[in-house]
Amino acid sequence: MSIQTLPTTPFAGQRPGTSGLRKKVTEFQQPGYLENFVEAIFQTLGEGDGRTLVVGGDGRYFNREAIQTILRMAAAHGVARCLVGRGGILSTPAVSCVIRKHAAFGGIVLSASHNPGGPDGDFGIKYNIGNGGPAPEKITEAIFAHTQALSSYRISDAGLVDLDQLGRTQLENMVVEVIDPVADYSELMARLFDFDAIRALFGRGFRMRFDAMHAVSGPYAKAIIEGMLGAPLGTVVNGEPLEDFGGGHPDPN
């Protein structure tokens, strides 16, 4: 393994908003496009020596490939530890939760929210700061400024990390820790809400249906609603995240 510095040129239009940078998958798949934006994030934040970064997304198309690139770039920029959800899955609220619980300096979230997924759909990337919230405008504008002035980016030439196996892997000098994407978030929900009362409600015969629409909420709903709260199996439907959301639109409205 070694760190490489590769030449690049700026791409127009990489200005993120509070919801990050959202473009068509095909635009993100251009050689250097994702790398440029991630490089701009690291140049804005400074080197990651001794710090922890959280990475995960909603499971849409290109999520896994993007995570592998981000991990290799994080290692090249001196991040000490990277927490990534198993299978590349971490909902946006879960990323915020993990950032705060593990005192990370921030997180990179891969999501285009309710925008359609799949090869012809949309992809998105945003940076959340150490309090778990979206990066403020002064940071997003600094990221954009860097995207317009890049001449190179740094990346490790290491191989792929197994995102489906819980545990730790060494990537250059960085530890990659694949974590249960639901555990920290469900623990937080159990502290915020009266799970005993809700569990008793289901015990009295209350029934509901949760349609996860093959989006990122499925694993959380199954673990919390069916697992921790005792709702009957089958309460959660379409609970497996799919890269194209099963051909549907991930917007319940």
Shape: globular
Q: Indicate the low-confidence ranges by residue numbers.
A: none
Number of helical runs? Answer: 8
Rg, please? 19 Å
Main β-sheet, in a few words? 7 strands, mixed
Assign a percent range to the helix content. Answer: 25-40%
Count of strand segments: 11
Integer count of domains:
2
Assigned CATH superfamily of the largest domain? Alpha-D-Glucose-1,6-Bisphosphate, subunit A, domain 3
In CATH, the architecture of the largest domain is 3-Layer(aba) Sandwich
Q: Strand share of the residues?
A: 15-25%
* H/E element sequence: EEHHEHEHEEHEEEHHEHE
Q: Which fold name is given in CATH as the topology of the largest domain?
A: Alpha-D-Glucose-1,6-Bisphosphate, Chain A, domain 3
What structural class is derived from the secondary structure elements? alpha/beta
Average pLDDT value? 95
CATH class of the largest domain: Alpha Beta
Strand order of the largest sheet: 2-6-5-3-4-9-8
Separation, N- and C-terminal Cα atoms:
47 Å
